[in-house]
Amino acid sequence: MSDSTTLVYKKKKKKFKIFPLVNAIFFIIVACLIMIPIYRVIISSLDANTSYNFVWLPSKFTWGGYTAVLTRSSLYTPFLISVVTTVIGTFVGLLVVTLGGYVLIQWEMPGRNFFAYMLLFTMIFDGGMIPKYLVIKQLGLMNTLWAVILPMSINVYNLVLMRNFFEGIPESLFEAAQIDGCSPMGIFFKIVLPLSKAALASIGLMFAVSFWNDYTNFKLYITKNKLFNFQIQLRNMVIDSDIPVDDAVNQETIGNAATIIAILPFMVIYPFCQKYFVQGVNVGAVKE
Description:
Elements: H1 3-12, H2 18-45, H3 64-70, H4 76-104, H5 112-124, H6 129-138, H7 146-153, H8 156-167, H9 171-179, H10 184-192, H11 197-212, H12 216-221, H13 230-238, H14 251-285
């Protein structure tokens, strides 16, 4: 065997490293620990004789818990309100963070650093619950869905993430567009947004999850029962024992079924957004 062949063989031979194996085992254990409570709720929602003890399989399989929740007409309006709030809130939130992030990457804009520092200041020091309540009340937004949508749409953390993503776009693209006579807003719509699909999907999903799971803002700013969202009604069912009566199904089963129905939409949506997260990592790793 020649020296060149031996050198190639040594290059191809990979050394066994213990860290990747230990790392994989560790995260598999963490994932299992996270999935155990979810698995327990799923099994309990399918067990007519559910109890507080952990079981691997339902002792008496039934769809009665889901039927009791899905056929309850009083949950239809809250579910629709949650959907409307999530869709509109996600759109408004993305509109605010994309426009705000685009403004903050305009290096020649006077006062850019001042506005950036002022936004970061709000991440460290928050006005508090009472000042927020007074502002919403003075604006006349009480008992309206805008009282929930607007405060959550102005998210500085997501704005900073979007700004950082925009900064990763090569400056040569902006310069080429300016040479071709494209206006700043034209650059935003024709170059920045098409290249930001991964960031829009990632941040949009974070917005959507926040709006869908929102409970505090509805409790603070909404007093009319007809404007309560699905999470408020779910709380009433589980905590206040406001559960539909079904002699064939345990009330604990119905409560667990309601919990699964509440998290099911994003369990379905998330796999479709996963590819955009991978794209976001690849795009962010390429620097000019």
